Amino acid sequence: MSSYLIRGLVADGGVRVVAADTTDLVRDAVERHGATRTAGAALGRSLTAGLLLAHVLLKDHRDRVTVRVRGDGPLGGVIADAGLDGSVRGYVQHAEADMPLREDGKIDVGGGIGQGEMLVVRSHAPYGDPYSSTIDLVTGEIAEDVATFLARSEQIASAVLLGVYFGPDGRVAHAGGVILQALPDANDAALAVLEANVKEFGGLTSAMQRAPLRQLVEEELAWGLGFENLTPEPLPVRFECRCSDEKALDALAYFSPEERRSMIEQDGGAEVVCHWCGEKRWIGPELIESLERDEIRCPDCGTLWHREGQARMVREGKLCACGRPMELPN
Fold this sequence. Notes:
The chain has ten helices and 16 strands. By secondary structure, it is of the alpha+beta class.
């Protein structure tokens, strides 16, 4: 089965469970970005965390949640953007960076990230302003940091399991995540059993090598507590970007006309690479030249003020960086 997500309730509705097998989509993302094992593990955990948090924090299918981890380690940072529709995208700032394995033989994601912060943004477009929360990183291993975010920002005690395992061939063999959350009507005895189950469970990707994730959730993590499956048909999840030829052309609008003419003269066009998914798009001379016909720039310094067909980028009468009052067509 391709990557999927399931939701359920444990202990007579006292505990919420969201779990996802993200093996295929994480493998796709790692290969798209040419990420090392350390960078790939950080990216995979973040992508999975984004999908899980979407089903914990969001209510409307138009909403998105963005998880941004920024640290002082060699990876620089990692970002993931996910929605309730099962789509997620993301990238690592330095996908080429790698770290030696830890003493216990595991990938050192925490060392690759270093010290820093985690920012979680809920976007409620088009009907509301984004809501963001920031915490200092606890370990940089992502799972512990997500659990800390949920405890501090949402006041919900949660157990978070995330993992990415690379096979002998260097490709992602298993990836996934689970969030278990105590709801207000959870009783102490059930939580004690759940805590014991999680401790006995061990590493997520090690467990995924012996059984499907759905079976692990029902028979091991929820052992003795009962599991009510809220998704009889698992939700497919996938790595999916929202880039397009139009957005690639929009990106070139921020280069000056002189720079764009140079692209045409020297290279015969421009290659635009999406940082979210690594997709490469070739923009030919005719399309590049069309930008100049549709834009309004400052007559003095050349700053882009407005593009035809786009939302107003500046306000009439506001001063440009060079000090000239901006003038836009009616």
